[in-house]
Amino acid sequence: MTITWEDPDGRGVPARLSPTARRLIAGTDWAALDVFGSAGDLAAELPRLLSADPAVRAAAFSRVAGATSVQNSLYPAAVPVAAFTAAILGHPATTNTHEGAAPHPRGRPSLRAVLLTWLGELDDDASYGERPGDRPGFDPNPTVLAFRAIRPTLYEAVGGFLDDPDPLVREAALGTTVALLLAPGLTDRIPRAARTLRRRLVGDADRRERAAVTLALGAWGRDVRDLLDDRDPAIRVCAALAPVCAHDVGAARELRAALADPTAVDPWFPDLLPAVVGQRFLGAVVTAAAERTRAFEDMLPVARAMLAAPVGLDLGPRCWVPVLAVLFPGVDVDPIVPTDGWAPCHRAGPGIDLAAAVLTPGQRAFLRELADRDSYWAVAREDAWTRELIPQRARQRAALRELLERPLHPACPHPPPEHMPDPDRHRSTLPEASV
User: Fold this and answer.
1) Which of 20, 66, 116, 347 is most exposed, with the fewest beta carbons within 10 Å of its own?
2) Angstrom distance (rounded) from CA 404 to CA 314
3) pLDDT-based confidence at 276, cuts 50/70/90?
4) Where are the chain's structural domains?
5) What is the pTM of this model?
6) DSSP, res 434
């Protein structure tokens, strides 16, 4: 194939590719990487990412992305494509707005921001088996191993945008940098990146950026306890989420204090933040507060505030399971968690049957509140899927009410010792904090 680098598609593509980018295209045997016909045209498609025509750029990105991964699994072409993407991040054409990007609270992102985020998504696909909680014994395939091998190259390209003038680029670079530096073999780069990020905390950054930086530093095991005294309650909570604060009584108190009004916390960050993986910020706060609380009387105000929250607030089973596990230690709380129709992958695990548990009057009183609260059993919005959940939740609620009609067991001021949680079950596996 003959490639005209200055205008590969005849539409005025201002390619001017770097020697590295050109070598990656010309020196890769794309046919050997082809999967279901997905990689054959990549040599022509990749330069079109830099097209002056926004429609050409958007179409090229769509085709390139489809040829590199599917359902969190990497195709062989992902490795040279990721390396090429890293090589063009500094190209002036990447500052153009990306037409295919979803709206962001700060505006429409540039192609550079989109590519930075996408590199983080590819790295996430390659990270399975490295993270706590992943299936043990996972055997990475050659493509995953090859992708992990180019992480240092990716970081050198991505880390350079942590100070970019565009806040959307900075956020995208931060999200990908957090993941890359948590990978085995790259943690020695953390101190340098942490110094860069610390400067953002004392600059003119807004709440969202300061929160993202605080969460990133915490995820890296850095000491952020000084931020527990920050003037902004959102930043104090972000600091309290850090693993270094897992056994800090004041940090746990900060989390519970914020949850006295969940409706005030949720609008802080309506969109996902870097380093809050897989859930919204409110859910992360609830989960951390539950993990760091052992006493019924400390968790009860949080549970009641959650119970009083409006139906539209994102407080689903994933939030309620850890809270109820604190209120009812050693008890199988599944029957009192409103079903969401999915397999119980986020449930609290086995425990004694609620009907057989010796409950305190306070525990029974809270169960009565659950049974009586319509909003707890309601679905956030009705559609073809959630309508099927309504009768299931009604049966759960009826069963709870029936249980509460049974005679009260003799009062037990404390749960039996064998049902107390393991005090070390939430101990962090991250490195000790460093300044």
Assistant:
1) 66
2) 28
3) confident
4) 1-205, 293-430
5) 0.83
6) B
